[in-house]
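FORM 7B - TANDEM STRUCTURE REPORT

SECTION 1: FIRST PROTEIN
SEQUENCE AND TOKENS:
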Amino acid sequence: MRSSNPVFSRRGFSRDNGYAQFNARQPQAGGPAVGTQANPYGQAPAGNPYAQNPYAQQDLQQGAPQAPATTGRMTMDDVVMRTATTLGLLIVTAALAWALLPVDEANLGKSYGIAIGSGLVAMVLGFVQAFKRKASPPLILAYAALEGVFLGVLSSVVDNYIAEGAAMQAVLGTMAVFTAVLVAYKAGWIRVNRRFYGFVMAAAMGFILLMAVNLLFSVFGGGDGLGFRSGGLGILFGVIGILLGACFLALDFKQVEDGIAYGAPKEEAWLAAFGLTMTLVWIYMEFLRLIAILQGND
């Protein structure tokens, strides 16, 4: 399944080097391949009894058969290590930004300017990686570092001027959502299939469109725009944003599971780390915004 998240419509694993990998032509869960052979991953890994079309043989949540350890193929350890590296760099730069870019009255403008600049560059790097055919570790790590600077200053501003302790609460909330979705996914309580994918994508596109319209009204009309990010509507859309992030985590988990099962190359673990990082950033920011509304003065 080609996974996405609320920030970027990124590619999944791409078909290359004879490995079974994700690409944009891959079928959605429960459906036949589009424009490809019956098996969307090409040559099935050794030991896979569903070589013709694994999706036609079993429900997604029953678990795809694991490919045997093969040199050059992605493993769960690869995904965990790359994700830990990417998130670790983001956390370190966020902590440094919090400590080295003060948000007192004398330095707020300068620190906030650096944060906005870092966030914009991180967004550009994210788009570049999203449309690249292969994972670029330096690009992904640069994205994580700059995103960390942005989040560090933003969190400091919210913590100091709007809602004390909001950053830690947002971190704990993000960890709780990640853990809950992982447990629910592994237990089979979340069924990642074609219907689930279609619903999440439609909801995400609608959400992003509304937020973009709200931002435009806010920029050109002043105030809170249409009010989607403040007051009662702000709370509602904050909860919806967190739920969407949780749904995209489930899609990311399925992407990783299928990539391992069908022989994605080892370097593709960086794509998994990139996607998981973006989704977790999305959830954290929605929590931070929600807490600011609940505890602050908008």
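SECTION 2: SECOND PROTEIN
SEQUENCE AND TOKENS:
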Amino acid sequence: MTRTFDHLVAEAESVSVAGWDFSWLDGRATEQRPSWGYQRLMSDRLARASAALDIQTGGGEVLAGAPELPPLTVATEGWPPNIERATRLLHPLGVVVVADADEPPLPFGDEAFDLVVSRHPVAVRWDEVARVLRPGGTYFSQQVGPASVFELVEYFLGPQPEAVRRGRHPDDARAAAEAAGLKITDLRSESLRTEFFDIGAVVYFLRKVVWMVPGFTVARYRDRLRELHDRIGAEGPFVAHTTRFLIEARKPD
């Protein structure tokens, strides 16, 4: 039986969006994965490190998926629900979770880590990354690229200025890393197909990824949500394109 707009929206409004686990969307949305396999590559680097830092760990799910962690592993997170979730998940693995408001400086001494990782950071403080890396150390990160899922963003917000669409460009990341004294050893990007199969998936996604449509609430966008619900029913999944880039940078010896 086809579920109604009101049922789908109410369900998506009521579910928790804590952590960085998107399994609630299984069967309701799909996102093509980058070809490089960040989890595997990150795990390889963690297995060879002696001291590692995971910045903006979210709920700790990605770090917890590594089969082997360095003797010293630390994670930072700024959102209180995620701090609690990451602590529960990572402490049994020997990882220290540090509450950090994502404002400089990082709460660590100079040259504290030989590996810094981060998956989908909101922002990168390149000077701080360079400061806490040991000489010869590596920063390894998968990041959200420019105009990611903007088909959905612009459905609600309208056309965005070119400066906004170009935000998070990998060329800018390269320039910022090099300005901080790091040497880029890998930089690649991909555009990936994303599909939303029902309006509940859209509501859940926008509640969880809060910077996509700032101030999003169902009450505020109810008319647009209903229009999109009808469109999905008539035309099939709403298609958008996620952009991702992988960046690795090394601190010179």
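SECTION 3: OBSERVATIONS ON SECOND PROTEIN
The chain has ten helices and eight strands.
The first helix runs from residue 5 to 14.

SECTION 4: SIGNATURE
Preparer initials: ____
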